[in-house]
Amino acid sequence: MHAITSRAVTLSSAALLFAVVLAISTYGALTRTRDVPENILRALRQGGVNLVYDWYDVPKYKPDAFDAELPLIRAAGGGHVRLVISMDVLEDARSGKLRDERWQDLKRFIGKARAHGLVTIVDVHNTGQKNADGSWTHDYMHRLVYPEMQSRHSRLLGELAARIYKETDRDWVIVDPANEPQSNIWYAYQDRLMPIIRHNCPDCVIFAMASKWQVPEETVRQLNPRERPWWDERFMVDIHMYAPLSLTHCSFPGKPNTCGGKTWPGVYDDGLPGGGRYNGLWDKEILGRSLQSLWDWSKRLRVQLHFSEIGTAADLADGPRSAYLRDVISLLRANGAGWTCYDWHQPQFGIKNAPATKDACLRGPRTTPPLGKNPG
Predict the structure, then answer these.
(1) Which residues make beta-bridge pairs with 136?
(2) Is 119 within 8 Å of 172 (Cβ atoms)?
(3) What pLDDT sits at residue 365?
(4) Is the N-terminal amide bond of 147 cis, ω within 30° of 0?
(5) 313 neighbors 250 (Cβ within 8 angstroms)
(6) What are the angstrom distances between the C-alpha of 107 and each of 4, 88, 102, 174, 178?
(7) What pLDDT shows up at residue 34?
(8) How many beta carbons lie within 10 A of that of residue 109, not counting itself?
């Protein structure tokens, strides 16, 4: 009896040890799967472009309009595209429900992008394309101040996330639920929205963001992602940066074209991305110093960063455009951030027909930081 008992204890101990080892290894595997997939990190750090208007301008919606551009973007060196979509395109009337035929269009687009080796950022860019007077809105998420719009938007994003989870490979898709929110109501709403998206897509990579144009200064000051109960390792922080604005937006609808003669480096009196204002010679060093607080913040909080909008007006000469982008991208790459140039082929900001600028965005510099956590 003693021998049998001892043997039983031995077997039980062995079984318990095996169970513990299995649990630890399983936990390690699950923990690893919670990180942003390496395929997505690689695609973001390879650079990409925004695709605009054919999924944004509702009356001119053309779901196949970008098909011919995808192989060109890949051949140029791109790793991903950000598909800019009006909420009006996806929503069934004002119900908050996802239109099935539009989802099928989107699923086909994601598949076509993947066939060309491109990850898709699904960017729900606004809460409606136009203002009440019929003009195009530049306060993209302004309707979120209304509870009814919050209900519609969160329902739509929840259903979109569920379809992405059930019908796509999430190693090739990122959910970008908003663009440049302005109101401080965004933070409370984001706290309600993100758990809905995560519940419906447990393994999606999701962009979170600050308000006030998603600039680095506001991100560091307000976002506090690791204080959010919904935050996990498959969230990334999305940032937009166009500093100095007097260079990057030297041509913009409704404003005088001042691009002629502008240079990079160059003298500008403008707001710094990290806060404050600088009047003097802007160059890579000035940008780097201003962004240092962002790099320190991301390393301290172990947060992955992506800049889904950088770029300049197309009326700026190819030389200073490319020089500016090379400096910006070299800073992003050195600190483990990805980037998406705005935009690919539209007249106002497109890079497709600017050879040096296109090359700066999608082909250089070529040294890629190691995958995984941000450096440091």
Answers:
(1) 130
(2) yes
(3) 53
(4) no
(5) yes
(6) 61, 17, 9, 13, 19
(7) 78
(8) 22
Name residue, tokens 């530049």: 138
| Amino acid, single-letter form, for residue 219 | T
Whether the CB-CB separation of 145 and 185 falls below 8 Å is answered with yes
Q: Of all helices (H) and strands (E), which one includes residue 320?
A: helix 318-334
* 3-state SS, residue 63: coil
d(CA 151, CA 192): 10
The Cα 127–Cα 87 span in angstroms is 6
> Sign of the C-alpha dihedral, residues 225, 245, 364, 173?
positive
* Separation of alpha carbons 190 and 187, rounded Å: 5
Give dist(CA 83, CA 73) in Å, integer.
Answer: 13
Distance of alpha carbon 154 from alpha carbon 141, whole angstroms: 13
Angle between helices 284-301 and 318-334 in degrees, nearest 10: 30
- Report the distance separating Cα 250 and Cα 261, nearest Å: 11
pLDDT at 349: 97
> Which residues, 6+ apart, have CB-to-CB distance to 234 below 8 Å?
34, 35, 36, 203, 204, 205, 206
Residue 246's nearest CA partner among 272, 284, 210 is: 272
Two structure tokens written together for 193? 């929205």
Give CA–CA dist 83/63, Å, rounded: 11
Tokens of 62: 């053309």
Instruction: Please report, as a single letter, which amino acid is at residue 239.
Output: I
Judged by DSSP in three states, 348 sits in: coil
Considering only CA atoms, which of 338, 311, 332 is closest in space to residue 245? Answer: 311
Segments of the chain with pLDDT less than 70: 1-33, 364-376
pLDDT for the residue 135: 79
For 352, phi then psi, to 5°, come to -55, -40
Residue 191 identity: D
| Tokens of residue 325, six digits | 């982008």
Q: By C-alpha distance, which of 225, 193, 368 is closest to 303? A: 225
Given the structure tokens 């196949």, which residue do they identify?
64
- Determine whether 133 is exposed, middle or buried from the number of CB atoms within 10 Å of its CB (0-12, 13-18, 19+): exposed
| Structure confidence at residue 131 (pLDDT) | 76
